[in-house]
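Appendix B. One record, verbatim.
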Amino acid sequence: MSRFMYSLLGVTALCACQEKTTDNEQPVPDTQEETEEEGTSSDTDTAATDDPPPEQGSTPLFVVAGQSNAEGNVRLGGLEALQNALPSHNETLSTTERSALREAYRTGIGDWCNPAEDYSDEMADAAIDAFRGLELDISQVSASYTIDGGQMVAYRWFHQEADLELGSPYENPDADAHPAHKSELAPMSVGFGLWDSEETSVLFYGPELGFALRFHQDSVLDNFYMMKVAMGGSSLYGHWAPDGPMRQKLYEKTNAFLEAQDAYVAGLIWFQGYNDQFEDSHISAYKDNLSVLVSDFRQTYGASIPVVVVQARKVNDLERIAEAQSVFVSETENAVLVESDGMTNCFHYDSVSQLVIGDRSAQAIIPLLNE
């Protein structure tokens, strides 16, 4: 089913499901249809699964979980534009160099945002300067590039209401599809973001790419796994509640991975929050609900598992979610907050910002790995 069809089902812009915008139109999230009719607060510490977890192995597994920005709605084309515009030096940019990088940033603005309306020089410069400050090498990234020692699998679902049972994750049905477009373990690469049935060959990515590039560049680990469990438009209050469908899938997929591979859970990267901003009940419960999710996850897979929380952008009521995330991290051991604010006006970020967020997540979790 195409993402156009999901727009007919009333899914908001966050899960990449409205009609493509023209130069004069920008999708506006439908806050009423995206929120759950019967939101369930996770005040009660209810186990997501009664099955005991499998024994854990020796290779670290990093789990990325959340909604559409965890899924990844930015294109390889934006990264390629950045590659072409980056100067060979790391000194102050000339006016011409700055202009070229701004245009590359505009090219990479996230899916379902309007570059004509969601672009600003201020945001572009902030993201560009943040990226250049990382000194992250993206020069070799391409559709065929793989990261030595890294493997990944992505389980992605198009949005549905929280009270409905989930089926199998979506994937590209073509036999010759890019490996990242399948729900199978594959070499770490670009493409583990959204798969669009209307643009079947386009490769998207999320924070996992910058994360893995940093691990590779700094030779942090010889081998590592990554796994993504994500649904666009999902809420912590409903979909990720203890009895919510995404919480169930998180445990189901993690357990299956540990049974199949010689792996142990080494970290959780949580990138979610947008769809909890639309109801006061969701906002007020967010910190406690996140505490329950992390506590349950650690009880199952390891009491001191490092947790990275990508903080929501501080705009409108989303700022209240960002504050709840900050409070959670301040009260939780082995948890760290990663800033995502100030680099974009797009709810799906952009190709530059996603690299920055992924790199920041890696640099945040590395010091925690041996604690």
